[in-house]
């Protein structure tokens, strides 16, 4: 029922979302079949050198690899992407590659210590059962642990350099927080919430009527036992068919009206604290619900939200300054792109960049 990362990430377009949108658009609006009057268009072929950056070539293999990795991550076939969208995807990815190469060039002399690299590596290793498992995953991707560490050093070098460019430009004040708070009142409204526990008696979607009746009787028997004084949490652990009940004793914590299936929410929000429901039917089966707490709708005060708001505004300001630095890098470089301009948005939905969060 219910960080500031690497600059490489900061530079990237929202690849997963964009790839999904491309595939969805391709399925919804497939290109028309060729006719005698409109023969099939010749497939676009990437040139051997897709771009040069300050005289250094970017080969088509690098761009194709990036494009295919995006599609593979989303389990999308290249055949699903129409030619126009493919060109748009190539252009956006190429811009990303160019920015990364420029960032590597500008940050080349920035110092990174072995201790910093090792600390990052240890954090990554902590996400795996062992270093052997990490090595297995890395080698399955065609890389080595040494390359991972080199990549970490490059990332840290880029981060240090970019931080040095923007260090005096990302401060925000209490006044900034107050202005944002006043201009965006709807963002600080907390809706009514209920905290409830439930005991679930599952009912299959194709259950026969007589089975449904038996399930309802079983749920009612549980409700009766609770109303007579038996401990709800104990019965939830013993009888609930919600897999999480063994750990949480049926507690669903606080939730808003739209967080649960409609039948469940309607019943829970109509109850008072301490009430026990008769069986409530939903797509999952029958629920016996106990409301354990309620929170009225409220507007969160500025004082309460200020620490998080200041952090949000600083992160937003930082991304704005990063974007300016990246634009300045591009303006200072000699960049030649050997791909045609993608179609205008009116002709086909284009990949859109998304700022890093």
How would the blueprint of this fold be written?
Elements lengths: L6 H5 L3 H14 L20 E5 L2 E4 H14 L9 H24 L7 H12 L5 H10 L4 H22 L7 H10 L5 E2 L2 E10 L6 H19 L4 H8 L5 H4 L2 E5 L6 H8 L10 E3 L2 E11 L2 E2 L2 H31 L2 E3 L20
Antiparallel strand pairs: 1-2, 1-9, 3-8, 4-5, 4-7, 6-7
Helix pairs in contact: 3-4, 5-7, 8-13
Summarize this, please?
By secondary structure, the protein is α+β, with helices and mostly antiparallel strands.
Commentary on this structure:
With 357 residues, this protein is an alpha+beta fold. The chain has two domains: 7-168 and 318-337, Triger factor/SurA peptide-binding fold; 192-296, Chitinase A, domain 3 (Roll). The protein has 13 helices and nine strands. The chain has helices spanning 7-11, 15-28, 60-73, 83-106, 114-125, 131-140, 145-166, 174-183, 209-227, 232-239, 245-248, 262-269, 302-332; strands at residues 49-53, 56-59, 189-190, 193-202, 251-255, 280-282, 285-295, 298-299, 335-337. Strands 5-4-7-6 form a four-stranded antiparallel beta sheet, with helices on both faces. Strands 2-1-9 form a three-stranded antiparallel beta sheet. It has a two-stranded antiparallel ribbon with strand order 3-8. A hairpin with a 2-residue loop joins strand 1 and strand 2. Helix 3 packs across helix 4 (83-106). The longest helix has 31 residues, at 302-332. It is elongated, with a radius of gyration of 28 Å. The model is unreliable at 1-24 and 346-357 (pLDDT under 50).
What is the number of beta strands?
A: 9
Average pLDDT, rounded to a whole number, is: 86
Name of the CATH first level of the largest domain: Mainly Alpha
Overall geometry: elongated
CATH topology of the largest domain: Triger factor/SurA peptide-binding fold
Give the biggest beta sheet.
Answer: 4 strands, antiparallel
Strand and helix order: HHEEHHHHHHEEHHHEHEEEHE
CATH architecture of the largest domain: Orthogonal Bundle
Strand content: 5-15%
State the share of residues found in helices, binned by percent.
Answer: 40-55%
């Amino acid at each position: 029922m219910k960080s500031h990362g690497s600059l490489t990430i900061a530079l990237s377009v929202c690849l997963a979302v964009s790839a999904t949108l491309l595939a969805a658009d391709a399925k919804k609006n497939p290109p028309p079949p060729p006719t005698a009057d409109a023969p099939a268009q010749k497939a676009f072929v990437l040139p051997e050198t897709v771009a040069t950056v300050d005289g250094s070539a970017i080969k088509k293999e690098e761009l194709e690899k990036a494009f295919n990795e995006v599609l593979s991550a989303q389990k999308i076939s290249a055949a699903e992407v129409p030619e126009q969208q493919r060109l748009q995807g190539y252009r956006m990815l190429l811009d990303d590659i160019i920015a990364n190469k420029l960032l590597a060039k500008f940050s080349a002399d920035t110092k990174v210590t072995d201790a910093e690299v090792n600390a990052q590596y240890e954090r990554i290793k902590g996400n795996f059962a062992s270093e052997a498992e990490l090595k297995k995953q890395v080698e399955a991707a065609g890389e080595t642990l040494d390359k991972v560490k080199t990549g970490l050093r490059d990332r840290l070098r880029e981060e240090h350099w970019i931080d040095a460019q923007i260090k005096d430009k990302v401060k925000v004040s209490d006044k900034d927080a107050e202005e944002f708070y006043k201009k965006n009142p709807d963002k600080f409204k907390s809706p009514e919430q209920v905290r409830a526990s439930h005991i679930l008696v599952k009912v299959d979607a194709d259950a026969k009527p007589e089975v449904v009746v038996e399930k309802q009787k079983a749920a009612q028997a549980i409700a009766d036992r609770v109303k007579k004084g038996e401990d709800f949490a104990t019965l939830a652990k013993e009888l609930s068919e919600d897999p999480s009940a063994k750990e949480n004793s049926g507690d669903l914590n606080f939730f808003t009206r739209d967080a649960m299936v409609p039948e469940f929410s309607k019943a829970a929000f109509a109850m008072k604290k301490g009430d026990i429901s008769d069986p409530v039917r939903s797509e999952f089966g029958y629920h016996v619900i106990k409301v354990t707490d309620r929170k009225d709708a409220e507007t969160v005060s500025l004082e309460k939200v200020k620490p998080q708001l200041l952090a949000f505004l600083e992160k937003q300001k930082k991304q704005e300054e990063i974007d300016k630095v990246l634009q300045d890098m591009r303006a200072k470089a000699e960049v030649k792109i050997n791909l045609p301009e993608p179609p205008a948005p009116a002709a086909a939905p284009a990949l859109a960049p998304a700022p890093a969060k």
